[in-house]
Amino acid sequence: MNRLVAAGRALRSAAPHRLPDALREVLRGHYAAEAVELRLADYGLTVLLPVPFGGAGGTGDPAPAAVHGSAPGRAFGAQEPHLEELGDGLVLAHLPVTVRGDRLGVLSVTLPGTQARERLTELAEVAQLLGHEIVVAERDTDAYRRARRKDRLTLAAEIQWELLPARSCARDEYALGAQLQPAYAVFGDNFDWAADDDRLTVCVTDGMGEGIEASLLTSLGINALRNARRAGVPIADQAALADQAIHAHYGGEAHLSVLLVDIELSTGRMRVVDAGSPHLLLVRDRALTRVDLDAQLPLGMFEETDYVAQELTLLPGDRLLFVSDGVHAVVAPGGEAYGEHALARAVASAALLPAADVPGAVLRALAGHRGRPEPDDDALVVCLDWFGQPSPSSSGRPGSRLSPGEGHGTVPSPPPGPQRHDADEE
Description:
This protein is an alpha+beta fold. It is 31% helix and 26% strand. It has 12 helices and 17 strands.
């Protein structure tokens, strides 16, 4: 039987919480693997935490591995297999476990060096099969969510993380990455995205208040926006319908700040509703500018508020950053807001990183600017790299740039900035 077929069959037939055990048996029987380890990225994206193996023949849980500075972390960051020589003819292969751009963790397999090198591409495909099955299995088990927790989540954070899509995703036209802090105690900030054949919608929200009340408000707002989006209405009407839902429940006593973006994938034309505190930043030709938007009322403040979408046009190579007020408004001990100069320096330092890694880099720089590790408010960064529609001859690479005359809005149009990144470049 084909080895990949055997791996897929074993994973599909395994109980949801026993996927690692099923895969270990396949790797031992078909690849002569001597040891198998699975680590998943924690909620804060700082450490790869071991997933326990059960049943007979277990070798004990591996140690956690840092996302930055460890061998498994190199595979996770670069999104490429990384080999370690162990001696005695053995190799430890670290394989990224990723689903449609969402980085879940790393599968580490100890096996003879000849097997590792000859079948490295095949082993990488096995790791991808495992990732897809983990995503499906999470509907029926908490095993993988528990394994990702370095600390206990607050109830508010539990609500927020259950609302979230993946932390990163990628298609030919774009790549997305996002991160929240404090990961284990977030309460009001949130992000959401959804893509169809021809459109990508991204929203960043900031719920008023603290703790469980802020998370419940955000939950209502996110689900109201999704309900409107899935009904097929334009984004201005999505905002209006969510505004009505929040006002009907809270009577104007609570509101939700929202930055809502809808992108036409074939052209890069973008419609934006700015209803509150999140900022939209553009990197084009290595220059960072805040996109000039018409500020409108946060959702839920007044009954039946009307919203208007502005139109802009993205060019291949553009990078968009969505940042909450817990990022741009944070003040250093000396009194300077992060958004004045330090944010631009952090974004410039992350210019060569892929979209999935940019939010973490910006938030690490924010901690240095703040002068203490723990924030006073939620901090959220979403990065969108726009590649544009690939041309038939580009093999998935960015296509031709749009001319400056196409589209509307205030975004300037010099040559494009950062291009697609297929690996973590240091």
